Amino acid sequence: MALLIIGSQRSEEFASAAREQVPDLDIRIWPDTGPVEDIRYALAWGPPVGALKRFPGLELIISVGAGVDHLMKDPELPGVPVVRYVDPDLTGRMVGYIALNVLMHLRRMSEYLEQQRQRTWRYLPEPAAHEVRVGLMGLGVMGKAAAKGLEALGCQLRGWSRTQKTIEGVECFAGQESLDAFLSGTDILVCTLPLTPDTRGIINRDLMRKLSRHGRHRRMPGPVLINAGRGALQIEADILAALDAGELYAASLDVFETEPLPASSPLWSHPRVVITPHNAAESTPEAISRYMLRQIARHRAGLPLENIVDPVRGY
Ligand code: NAP
Ligand code: GLV
Questions:
Q1: Whose alpha carbon is nearest atom 33 of ligand 1?
Q2: Rounded distance, CA 220 to CA 39, Å?
Q3: Do the domains 2-87+283-300 and 88-275 sit in the same CATH topology, yes or no?
Q4: Sheet holding 188-191, edge to edge
């Protein structure tokens, strides 16, 4: 039984970490697969379309990421279980990214950094955390954990998901029919939605115009967008237009329509856009290897797999 690592620039690092944990593991790194019939398991990020169907003995695909859109876009993906990555290491990183960026904007840090560059000592009005309404788009593993972290900061919380949730301290909305109501009471929108045919392009001008303008009464300069889901959820030209029109005060973007973000993108130089290189939550070699080896062990022992992707929902 061999493990294939495919579709990641970090394949060698993942292989070394896995070998440290199980020294005699037979690991092949794409495209050096050896005989295709040896491969039983695949650890995959964005494999070339059609690549995984070449392995007739493949039993299980483990996603390097929590998001599986890179896998689901393959129309020839073999019909074996796909397990996505869910781990406290990854979740904790995401909570840190979200808390950091919520605080960044409610404390107007991009303006203070600009003032520092200008050696300007000027007070700016700021809301208290308890005056700010954070809207979590996506109430899955990441959204729920972010809610706990933001609750500790004292923010008011609301959340939106496909199916109705009940979460203490979070006003929950579900489905397309309640999206407008969710947005209309949101000062800071935090997106951790997966990319599926239903969510592609959802962060557009129309959506941003529906965010609350009433935060201004509580010293929020305007609505804020934080997107740590996937780049194809957002229309970047619309984000820039909304910023320029004052419909958005600021944005933190970790994911982009094209990654790496092209040097020509005007997002790079916008004074109130915070850009990070898709590292809101990194799958570290140690943690993803540990997780992958646990799933393989469960599979071999005939135990139920964890975090199986529903191919119909696409996440
Ligand atoms: P998850 O547990 O599957 O949660 C997904 C959430 O999105 C669920 O609440 C789901 O609703 C909701 N959702 C899906 N489709 C929807 C729709 N059409 N309308 C409304 N809500 C919808 O996933 P997760 O572990 O939280 O991860 C979420 C995403 O974060 C990943 O897919 C990935 O794209 C992204 N991510 C990014 C990074 C990064 O570094 N930037 C790192 C990790 C993850 P239900 O609860 O009703 O199913
Ligand atoms: C990263 O983007 C992930 O999906 O885990």
A1: 67
A2: 54
A3: yes
A4: 170-174, 156-161, 133-137, 188-191, 224-227, 250-253, 273-275
CA of 143 to the centre of ligand 1 (A): 8
Atom of ligand 1 nearest to the CA of 199: 18
For the stretch 203-256, pLDDT in tens is 999 999 999 998 878 899 999 999 999 999 999 999 999 999 999 999 999 999
CATH topology of domain 88-275: Rossmann fold (3.40.50)
The reply to whether 299 belongs to the active site is no
- What gap in Å lies between CA 16 and CA 28, rounded to an integer? 12
Ligand 1: distance of its center to the CA of 281 in Å? 13
Q: What CA–CA distance (Å, rounded) separates 4 from 38?
A: 9
Structure tokens at 253: 């973007």
Are the C-beta atoms of residues 115 and 197 closer than 8 Å to each other?
A: no
Ligand 2 atom nearest 64 alpha carbon: 5
